[in-house]
User: Fold Homoserine dehydrogenase from Mycobacteroides franklinii.
Amino acid sequence: MSDAIGVAILGLGNVGSEVARIIESSASDLAARIGAPLEIRGIGVRRVADDRGIPVELLTDDIDALVAREDVDIVVELMGPVEPARRGILGALNAGKSVVTANKALLAQSAGELAEAAEKARVDLYFEAAVAGAIPVIRPLTQSLAGDSVIRVSGIVNGTTNYILSAMDNTGAGYDTALAEAGELGYAEADPTADVEGYDAAAKAAILASIAFHTRVSADDVYREGITKISADDFDSARALQCTIKLLSICERLTDNEGHQRVSARVYPALVPLTHPLASVSGAFNAVFVEAEAAGELMFYGQGAGGAPTASAVLGDLVMAARNRVQGGRGPRASRYAKLPIAPIGLIPTRYYVRMRVADKPGVLATVAAEFSKREVSIATVRQEGEVDETGARLVVVTHKATDAALSETVAALADLDVVLGVASVIRLEGTQE
Ligand code: NAP
Assistant:
């Protein structure tokens, strides 16, 4: 058994307290797996007090001093927000400590800066818990699939929105009712903006795209739409089409006619056929569906948040970093060699569902269809749903693949037609072969 590995934990909240607990309760097993015991040297918090279930002498509010301590080998950052986490992590890396973090917001913004600091110091920087909590997805992408070529990663990586959308699907509730229920049950925060507007999912898409396609992708490169406009009527139409609606984080490698490759990273609510594996991921669960050239389809499923599940992923990284310290090396890291350009959303081909109210008159279908065909948007199906009344008829068009630019032009033209009383909803359709 080697000398003890000194660990500093930054943050003692939902995740940090579970990590500290498991380090203590599983001490002998962890020591046997690592080849050296782990010893917590200090825990960074805002409130240093003796009522926190941790010996008060371990607590400190001086993050800079804690990460620089000579007896600290590995820093586990679990504070959240970008600052002071960024400063703490850079301080640790520059002082030659390996770092484990779950901070998706920071990684989506500053992964390059952190990776360079880790590279310079020749230490590990691990972040399995930053995407999809307990679900192993970073390590499979960086290591297990290191010899394959990933084509596409589609994830349900935000539990709050998946809970809301599942509730809308199961109960027929509207968005506001489902959001209120999610808040009461603790699945949505008092300010749910980061979740329902897709910012959290976009940060995770940036991390997944960077790793899957060996390219630096930041949160600003990710096209983003949230779920706030999804209605009970959309779910009625989705059911009629044998689909459900999910907030997807999609990372894709696209090849144009000249063979040039680009990366697309995007987050939006999409219709997903009930036969697709992602359709059955309900409630607060997460899943990541990977398509690779040789491996084919892979699905990773489990708990995407919560103190204990997230701590499991953090502990996995901590054990890896500690083993590397004991053996005197570094683990494999994500590469950025491909440097692919980012594809703008206008170029992305997807299928669409367009729901509109139209006048109940002869010739309406032909007029509507003409607007699609003028822009080479090919229609797959047209359905009239529900009863016709004084407000017209509800028409649902599903297209074959078209670019976002062509579809946006079509929708603008439809809205100008006298026979179209209003375009109520435009949602992409993902997970079909056509
Ligand atoms: P949390 O419950 O809010 O805990 C944050 C902790 O950080 C608290 O102990 C707080 O100290 C400490 N802290 C915050 N700002 C600080 C500062 N300026 N100086 C010193 N300490 C500071 O957060 P969490 O839910 O455990 O999440 C931690 C990280 O894990 C975040 O990056 C989050 O995105 C990520 N994550 C969380 C989950 C999850 O399910 N919770 C899942 C995946 C990833 P006090 O206790 O003194 O206030």
